[in-house]
Amino acid sequence: MEALDRKGREAYILDVLAREGMLSVAQLARELGVSEVTVRGQLRELEGRGFLARTHGGARSTSAQNVLERQRVHTAEKERISRAAAQLVRDGDRIMIEAGTTTAGIVKHLTGRRGVQIVTNSTLVFAHARTNPGLAVLMTGGSFHRPSESLVGPVALRAIRDFHVRLAFVGTDGFTVQRGLTTQFAEGAEVIAAMHAQADETWLVADSSKFGQAGFVRVLGLGDLAGIVTDVGLPDASVRELADAGASLSVV
Predict the structure, then answer these.
(1) CB atoms < 10 A from the CB of 156, how many?
(2) Is 41:31 a contact under the CB 8 Å cutoff?
(3) Distance between CA atoms of residues 6 and 152, nearest Å
(4) Contact residues for 201 (Cβ-Cβ < 8 A; gap 6+)
(5) pLDDT per residue of the chain (252 residues) written in tens, 0 to 9
(6) Contacts of residue 2, Cβ cutoff 8 Å, sequence gap at least 6
(7) What CA–CA distance (Å, rounded) separates 46 from 165?
(8) FRET partner for 235 with CA separation of 20 to 30 A, picked from 116, 139, 155, 216?
(9) What is the rounded distance in angstroms from the CA atom of residue 248 to the CA atom of residue 161?
(10) Is 210 left (phi over 0), alpha (psi -120 to 50) or beta?
(11) pTM as predicted
(12) b vs e for 209-220, b when ≥16 Cβ sit within 10 Å of the residue's Cβ?
């Protein structure tokens, strides 16, 4: 990449955040050809102006359009993952779907299912499900979190704990063998943990770019999952690492 001045680096950083929702200091330093100290200084300045929130080792977008922008990233992979996850759902099932772009896509592939009841904190799930007469949707209520298009907080948690379901579908900002599922958003982590506690099986649906990423808040261990649905972009070495750790993988 051609060397950029300060304003050029700022534009590049904001473009990455708009596309990906988060970034790594180390990766950004390599791409821009500057030191990590320089990147961190620029991230501090952008955080002070309200453009981003710094995280351990990187930054995340604070844009209200964050989740909508993420819908345009890894779209083919997310489509395959959500279609495969939907195949786990039976007629008459009771399921929970946590907020996220890949999780919300599951609902689009439930056409033809009958009598499925969905408990969700995701406004995107509601948008997909509202025209399908075979689905009954219960929204949790709670405080609206714009970046994730989700309902969170004590009201949402109380609603989740009132129900028992066969399947819970959850997403993540990152997952590793050592740390399990992690996220940048503490209240979102509480929702995932609550859904896991109320489900017979918890399934992670996440594209391969999330593997190896570690967020701020630990949510669940890999051993808590019934399985992981991800895409063929996951390197063979990572597949072996997850399998060796006992994870059940569906790679699509």
Answers:
(1) 24
(2) no
(3) 37
(4) 166, 167, 168, 226, 227
(5) 667 888 888 888 887 876 677 899 999 999 999 999 999 999 999 888 767 888 889 998 765 445 555 555 678 999 999 999 999 999 999 999 999 999 999 999 999 999 999 999 999 999 899 899 999 999 999 999 877 889 999 999 999 999 999 999 999 989 999 999 998 788 999 999 999 999 999 999 999 989 998 777 899 999 999 999 999 999 999 999 999 999 999 999
(6) none
(7) 43
(8) 216
(9) 26
(10) alpha
(11) 0.75
(12) bbbebbbbbebb
How far is it, in rounded angstroms, from Cα 225 to Cα 247? 8
Q: Torsion over CA of 233, 238, 239 and 245, rounded to 10 degrees?
A: -150
Three-class SS string for the chain?
Answer: CCCCCHHHHHHHHHHHHHHHCEEEHHHHHHHHCCCHHHHHHHHHHHHHCCCEEEECCEEEECCCCHHHHHCCCCHHHHHHHHHHHHCCCCCCCEEEECCCHHHHHHHHCCCCCCCEEEEECEHHHHHHHCCCCCEEEEECCCEEEHHHCEEECHHHHHHHCCCCEEEEEECCCEEECCCEEEECCHHHHHHHHHHHHCEEEEEEECCHHHECCCCCEEEECHHHCCEEEECCCCCHHHHHHHHHCCCCEEEC
Q: Is 17 left (phi over 0), alpha (psi -120 to 50) or beta?
A: alpha
